[in-house]
Fold:
Amino acid sequence: MTHRELTDRLRLATSLPMNERNGQARSRRGRRQGWQVARAALVMVGGSVTLGGCISVNAPDKPIVIELNINIKQEVIYRLADDAGKTIDKNPEIF
Amino acid sequence: MFAALSHIRPLAAAAAALALGASLAGPLAAQQRDPAYAAARAAGQVGEKMDGYLGFVVSPSAGVKALVEDLNIKRKAVYAQQAQAQHATVEEYAFTSGCLAISRTVPGEKYQAPDGSWATRTSAPPQRDPRCP
Structure:
């Protein structure tokens, strides 16, 4: 039962010529439409095989953000930490 | 002439005393946060950013916006002065201060997490940039 349901779903998108007879037997849409579906599926399969051999490079849809903070080195931060702490203590009204 | 000067001297002393009083009263009066800033901070409307400045968690009222922008300008002035003394860039000094300011937030206050989102400080240590001391 489960198997039948799966083949029915598959048939609509990617039924192969070999499966076509079975799919068509269960089809409520008639012989002609079944062949159209099979042909479309064949074209799609062929297309995807062709595309499978290609490497596609897509441009990113989001702008590239360069993090400027990356230039700040940890050793500098450690050197400044003591003084920065005192600065915060001395200026409590702005921190 | 001398008599006139001797009259001036007490006046000058008084002026100096006044100036001293004012200079003492100035920092004392400015020793704590503006109540409006403190309230916005406690309410989570304003948070500490990673870059060492304050940011708006929600759209601020005109008053809070002006207040926070003023504080950020004052912070930048302090950062610039100290950075020069420490032979560092303003950004480096500001970032270091940001690390510390985030550490010093109290539960309920907002701070900017390393991914850029606003986080609410809990009793647990805040999420900070891995470079923070």
Observations:
- The CA atoms of residues 87 and 95 of chain A lie 10 Å apart.
